[in-house]
């Protein structure tokens, strides 16, 4: 690597990262046909537009009562709403930064070219940071565009609304650079295990602080802001200037003092013996439980459970687990990527798609068994178990469509899509019997995708 840093080299690296990313996103057997690609995109667009339309209707209904208020009351409520708005942006920014750090990583091809070609170390690191920021901004835009109609509740002046929109992005970028600086400090510690532990503790700490802020602190801040003698425009100006200064300082510190090349192929699995426990196929259970995400989720559940137990007791902890435990199915996203090379030789052992599907279904029934117990303890009955199975099978399906090794952002896309699936399934929970045909549909789609994988392997 060289020592000089040029904008041209950074742009070349960014082009490399983007080409590698978008080449791998749809590089799967299921997406070989145009109708499958366009149909998939069409469904996502319809869901997004529908959600955006419903949001506009709700905002319009909320805004009807604003026209009967006097100016003083309107200003007070506008400042409180604006403060709450920026608090939400802050929380979203931290969550996205953590999410991007956990899911974005360069695959073998991109990492090989970045490391072997004569680029300066700082060029590679800054290019990677800009690449992650661009992905984070795209994710932020998807979320924020749904919140934009709420600006009508705070101001009717076009200039103020535009300034708020710019300030939201300045705040987001500042938070992103701060989080990157923290992770960069952690990357300078010696030892992979220590770095992983510190990174996990940072994530858990920020999540805990965010929930505390969301439930208690932000209301105090909102009331205090509402009582200050300033206009909405002045308030937005303060947030904008603070974001620019803090974000610039974080970027400067990271680039000048903290930046370190921590880009490498990181092991995703632990060498852990599973004592002769397999269901039909010996690869299914190990492919899921040996992944680092399995232990990350276990640790997250333990921390959340302990926190809920301390604050609300045993019953409060169980009520929290009703919402959290079904999300354990997210770990199944990595199954397809973990078994990709092994699956290519399945046909040599006369293993058919239906056999792998059967192994997956039975393994799912075993791995989500805790939700069956929890459902009956909390009076939810069998439905919580079926809900968890749907999430797990949905995660496996999405993992097949977007395996991590095929693109730099596939894990991010897969996780986002699974979040959408969870939201849809949550709505179906209240519809009696709706989860059963949904599960049948997911299994049918999974079988079709697995069959496509076998056809390509041959």
From TrEMBL:
Keywords: Membrane, Transmembrane, Transmembrane helix. The chain crosses the membrane at residues 38-56, 76-100, 130-151, 157-186, 198-221, 233-258, 294-312, 318-336, 357-376, 382-402, 409-428, 434-450. The keyword Transmembrane helix applies. It comes from the Bacteria. This is Uncharacterized protein. It comes from Lysinibacillus alkalisoli.
